[in-house]
Structures are given as structure tokens and as C-alpha cells.
Design brief:
Structural class: alpha/beta
Oligomer: single chain
Shape: globular
Mean pLDDT: 83
Helix content: 25-40%
Low-confidence stretches: 37-44
Radius of gyration: 20 Å
Order of helices and strands: EHEEHEHEHEHHEEHHE
Distance between the termini: 62 Å
Largest sheet: 6 strands, mixed
Number of helices: 8
Number of strands: 9
């Protein structure tokens, strides 16, 4: 084999909502680029993560989850987007499912992926939460009868268990290709977009069910002052009552959200961040 041969390709990480796709891509990259939450439909757009190791470059696509409880049109649009815009160009699809739960959404997504004839790996996630693991083998047998998968791998995206197996499978599926990005790149998402996503994550994490996750974040200023970033973020809600919840008693909620968001931004951007947040009602 020519030692100078490079390998590069796209890998889609897909599945229904809240199965751990974003946690998986973050763990595979060793960097946080996709926000996580216990709420469904946390990921709204396709997030790109880039992993480069020696001659291998893997471009992971973290796709929005399909939620059958959403309106039917939205489900159809998500699947159409999944197939037409993403899977068409990938070398491999990693289909993530939640433990031994095979739902209507799983079947729906699986049927669409199967029709694409792409190489497919099933990742059975959250195995650290399976109490009776003796049932895992029969479930794997059930899956293996559906179609010929490349692999079925039990994993824990949270702890990293068996992700080395996933990585080796992915490497073997990459075509010979020049790397698309320099090794310093970990995502194609802009820093402005990442900042808005981090703020949105903290809103969901600290306010739970109090605030709809559809709250919009606008980054009005993102200024690079050489030794720090100056970021102004506007949280847009529909009702004055929501604004009061986000601000909290004597501003304690907005302070906590801002502090935790700034901490994550500094870890990702590798620079000091001055973050200023305010809330605006826009019906």
C-alpha cells in the first residue's frame, strides 16, 4: 500500500430524537461541537464534525432527529432532507437507537436508509443503562434478520464504550481521497453559530420545561479583540412571562445561563470570552 494514500469521506449519524446522536459525535471528535439535551429535537440543523487522524479524515454529519409526535409534514420533510441532502453523498450511515427500544420512528428511518443502499452500521446506544444485558443478544439477532448490516455495535456514547470499534469500522469504509480540510478544523459551523447553540443548550438545561425550546437566539455582535471574544447574545421569546422566567429572581437565572455558556465557549474557542445576554419579547 502506498504510504502516502489518504482516505476521506462523509459519515451520517442519524436516528430518532433523543437517542444520543449529538453525544456520540462529540465523543468521536473529542470536542463538543453539537449541543445535547434530554429534550427531543435539540439538534435543528445538520452539524458537521471533522476528525483527522494521520491519513484518515472523517466528516461526521449529526442530523436532526425524526420525531413521529411532530406533525406528519415535519416528519416527511426531515426524512426527505435526510435522504436527498445528506445520505446521497455519504460513505457510511451510523444509525443510532436507544437501548433495546425499536419504535415506529426507528422502523420509519430504517426503511428509508435501507432503500438508499448505503453501507449501514447500527449503534445500540446507552448500553450502560441496560440492567439485564442477557436480553441484548436476542435483540441483536432480531435486528440482524432485518437486513444485512455492516455491523451491529452496542455502545455507550456517554462513557465511550466500544467507540473504538465504531472508529475502526468507519476508517475501513472511507474511500481513497484527499482530505477536504486541514487537520486544525473540527467543524464547518461558524463560531457565531456555535455560540448561539451553546446559549440555547443552557436555556434548555437550566429552565427545563419552563421555556419552549423554540426560543430563538440572535448573536448581534461577535468581535475578535485578539486576546478575547466579545459576544452579545439576544434571547427572543414570545411572552413577557417567559422573559421573567429566563431573567429569574434578581437576575439569577440569566447570570447562571451566561456563566455556563461562557465557560463552554472558552473551552471550544480556546480564548477568553466576554459574553453579554439580554432577553427581548417579540410576538
Amino acid at each position: 500500500m502506498n504510504k502516502h494514500t489518504n482516505y476521506c469521506g462523509l459519515v451520517a449519524i442519524t436516528g430518532r430524537s433523543n437517542v444520543g446522536k449529538s453525544t456520540l459525535i462529540n465523543k468521536l471528535l473529542g470536542e463538543k461541537i453539537s449541543i445535547t439535551s434530554c429534550k427531543s429535537n435539540t439538534t435543528r440543523q445538520c452539524i458537521t464534525g471533522i476528525y483527522t487522524e494521520d491519513k484518515y479524515q472523517i466528516i461526521y454529519l449529526d442530523t436532526p432527529g425524526v420525531n413521529i409526535n411532530s406533525n406528519t409534514l415535519q416528519v416527511k420533510e426531515n426524512i426527505h432532507y435526510l435522504l436527498k441532502k445528506i445520505i446521497k453523498d455519504v460513505s457510511l450511515v451510523i444509525f443510532v437507537i436507544d437501548r433495546m427500544q425499536w419504535t415506529i420512528e426507528d422502523e420509519l428511518i430504517f426503511n428509508q436508509i435501507s432503500s438508499s443502499r448505503k453501507s449501514l452500521v447500527i449503534a445500540i446506544n446507552k448500553i450502560d443503562n441496560i440492567k439485564n444485558k442477557i436480553n441484548l443478544l436476542p435483540f441483536i439477532n432480531f435486528l440482524s434478520k432485518k437486513v444485512k448490516f455492516l455491523e451491529i455495535v452496542p455502545i455507550s456514547a456517554k462513557t465511550g464504550k466500544n467507540l473504538d470499534i465504531i472508529l475502526e469500522i468507519v476508517k475501513k469504509q472511507l474511500p481513497k481521497n484527499n482530505h477536504y480540510y486541514s487537520k486544525e478544523y473540527i467543524t464547518t459551523c461558524s463560531e457565531r453559530f456555535i455560540a448561539s447553540e451553546i446559549i440555547r443548550e443552557k436555556l434548555m438545561r437550566f429552565l427545563g420545561e419552563e421555556i419552549p425550546y423554540i426560543s430563538k437566539i440572535d448573536i448581534e455582535n461577535f468581535i475578535d479583540n485578539k486576546n478575547h471574544y466579545y459576544i452579545n447574545g439576544k434571547i427572543i421569546v414570545k411572552h413577557d412571562s417567559q422573559k421573567k422566567i429566563i431573567i429569574g429572581h434578581q437576575g439569577n437565572k440569566i447570570k447562571t445561563i451566561g456563566k455556563q455558556a461562557r465557560f463552554d465557549m472558552q473551552k471550544i474557542f480556546k480564548i477568553q470570552v466576554k459574553l453579554y445576554l439580554w432577553v427581548k419579547v417579540c410576538s
